[in-house]
Specification:
Two copies of one chain form a homodimer. By secondary structure, chain A is of the alpha+beta class. Chain A has eleven helices and 15 strands. Chain A has two domains: about 270 residues, L-amino peptidase D-ALA esterase/amidase (4-Layer Sandwich); about 120 residues, ArgJ beta chain, C-terminal domain (Ubiquitin-like (UB roll), Roll), CATH 3.10.20. In chain A, the strands form two sheets. In chain A, strands 1, 2, 3, 4, 5, 6, 7, 8 and 9 form a nine-stranded mixed beta sheet that branches. Chain A has a six-stranded mixed beta sheet with strand order 13-12-11-14-10-15. In chain A, β6 and β7 form a beta hairpin. The longest helix of chain A is centred in the middle third of the chain and has 20 residues.
Chain lengths: ~400, ~400
């Protein structure tokens, strides 16, 4: 029912255009300023950071999206425009105004996002000079994706075509990582496009559900960014039957697929990471605790460092579980590492350590399963290993 | 009123003896098994890990200390005896029995602690063979300190002599770090001795107060260990006036001094650390939030990595504060880095970046002060920088 579109991205969806330029916000000669827009006004919804320090673009986009409408997103990398006071908010508004003028739409329909260093003002002269030169096209999705990258090593994008009883539609998405990733509500930046016709209430609920089981279940380093946001634009051009709570299953699943793909890409490409860690907690007391336990294990620096060294130090997994807050009864606990049972009912389970080391070494996805045997709660979280490279990247980011 | 005793430690206190041997629990030829004992029965109290996975020695020591009495502590490094099921508890009891037989006291007066790898059973044959060879003496405090070290690079010990209106007494302490440090209630292992005569209720309250502003305010890596405990033995041999809530100020301050010294030593010697980070939060809404905010900033991997690189990336400090849960109003926030104001009322404060980099580079203690300007809450937390070495140590701990 889902088809992943080869090399698909946000402009694989009807009626969406994108373009990007190098404005000189980043010192390297890389794309750093981009616009995504729809040919027609969209229903729009978003999920924003829970950090009490919110970047100026987050404050502005929350304001603009509050009426449920939007038509374009202007984004820069290289500077987060966070902790920049009143000037920051004026700069974010100026970005929206410049993009609106360029596209011939009203500024209230423009959402703004910025990512990069915190505490430094935007170089508005460069942005002002560069925006008119951005040429949004149907082929521009990939350039947009590259323009929002900071320490990301790989682009993160996807599009899927859905053929459902309610008609055909497409969902595309793009995201960027790669540090300060422990979304309290959303990840750094993610933009989702769709041509599906969807009721406003359902659109909002569907995005929250999708974010909850995807971006809210990843962690690179436990730090939640003031810039986090996931924005969804739905232009309704697909001509499908209007989707709502009673007939929106396929859309919900498509959104979960897109968000989960992007969230896992962000975790896998965490700063310095060499492996994706997938932690599944089963039979927890309830789902809330299962989520908490899975995220705690996936975020533990000691678990992450052990995985980096292909060290089956499962005691650290259990220690992280024990501090997660989830109820644990040691004598019921089973632990699996890459499908091998290493702990059964709270005690060491005889297993061949050399085999586990070899399986950890040869795979770039490490599976940790914790079966608590207490209830029906289940959840999966994703993280990445902790490498020397993470420290190297982050010990000289602004200098 | 306080005198720090030169090269003082737990056996600088009247009536306490200690000794240690190499039993072969660690592979290296290092001390790894030790006994601390008092000539007479002590009032005893302890603070233990909040991790739901508790090591067998923690379970046993909680049981033995429940009557408020103790006379000896037997400790090993190299194996935590955690996640070892029923066998682990039997082994911890055997350790207590062996030490009790050696000392000629009842096993209920013996407390047990173990630190090292989780999930591996204790080599009881080696412990059984080694305990009779331990010779506790008045000079044994430093050997005891070395015997409990794992990845610690430096011994952590102190003793202070107190001359108060209620009489003279001495307080000594020893602790070990250096990873899995984010005490939920206590740190890895800390043992405090005193010859003061103290009422049982006050002794318990005083230890909790001291731990709350010392060990509970440090973090190396955010992971809380199943082995955490702080144990305090008070043998009453000093002949001072009985100390209680109404006359115990000097004792309380002495205990805070000892615990804070040891806690800062643990943070400073965190795995791979090169710097101590001291985070002070002032004028928070209340003390609870001040504590939470200070700990969150001191634990942020991004702040820690920036400090490692002498990078004055204060945006990360503010981002960590913003996700701490403490109420923050950006427009009231002042931030100081090594006494230089880098943010004033939420905006970048003009300062010489080169000067800050130079002060970060030249000092091994970095001071971060956050003034929230919202209320009277104040707290200080300690952490350490995050280095490539931390990852190297922790990616091959069991292999």
């Amino acid at each position: 029912m889902f088809d992943i579109i080869a090399s698909g991205n946000i402009t694989s969806v009807s009626g969406f255009l994108a373009g990007a330029v190098h404005a000189g916000i980043k010192s390297k000669d890389e794309l750093d300023l981009a616009i995504l827009c729809s040919e027609v006004t969209c229903k729009a919804t978003g999920v924003f950071t829970t950090n009490q320090i919110k970047s100026a673009p987050v404050v502005l986009s929350q304001r603009h999206i509050s009426k449920g409408r939007g038509q374009a997103i202007v984004v820069n990398s290289g500077c987060a425009n966070a902790c920049t006071g009143e000037q920051g908010l004026m700069d974010a508004m100026a970005m929206a105004n410049l993009a609106a003028a360029k596209l011939g739409i009203s500024p209230e329909k423009v959402l703004v996002a910025s990512t990069g260093v915190i505490g430094v003002p935007l170089p508005m002269d460069r942005i002002r000079a560069a925006i008119p030169g951005i040429k949004p096209t149907q082929k521009g999705g990939h350039d947009f994706c590259r323009a929002i990258m900071t320490t990301d090593t790989k682009p993160k994008e996807i599009a899927i075509r859905v053929d459902s009883n309610e008609g055909q539609f497409t969902v595309g998405g793009v995201a960027k990582g790669a540090g300060m990733i422990h979304p309290g509500m959303a990840t750094m930046l993610c933009f989702v496009t769709t041509d599906a016709m969807v009721s406003a209430d359902f659109l909002r609920a569907a995005l929250h559900s999708a974010v909850d089981c995807s971006f809210n279940m990843i962690s690179v380093d436990g730090d939640t960014s003031p810039s986090d946001c996931v924005l969804l634009l739905a232009n309704g051009l697909a001509g499908n039957e209007l989707l709502d709570f009673d007939n929106g299953d396929a859309f919900q699943q498509a959104l979960i697929t897109v968000c989960t793909h992007l969230a896992k890409s962000v975790a896998r490409d965490g700063e310095g990471a060499t492996k994706l860690i997938e932690v599944t907690v089963e039979r927890a007391e309830d789902e809330v605790w299962a989520r908490q336990a899975a995220r705690t294990v996936a975020s533990s620096p000691l678990v992450k460092a052990a995985i980096h060294g292909n060290d089956p130090n499962w005691g650290r997994i259990v220690a992280a579980l024990g501090r997660s807050g989830a109820r644990v009864r040691e004598e019921r606990l089973d632990v699996y590492l890459n499908e091998v049972c290493v702990m059964k009912q709270g005690s060491f389970s005889p297993c061949n350590k050399a085999d586990i080391v070899s399986s950890l070494t040869s795979r770039d996805v490490v599976l940790i399963k914790l079966c608590l045997n207490l209830g029906d709660g289940k959840a999966t979280a994703w993280g990445c290993d902790l490498s020397e490279e993470y420290v190297t990247i982050n010990s000289a980011y602004t200098t």
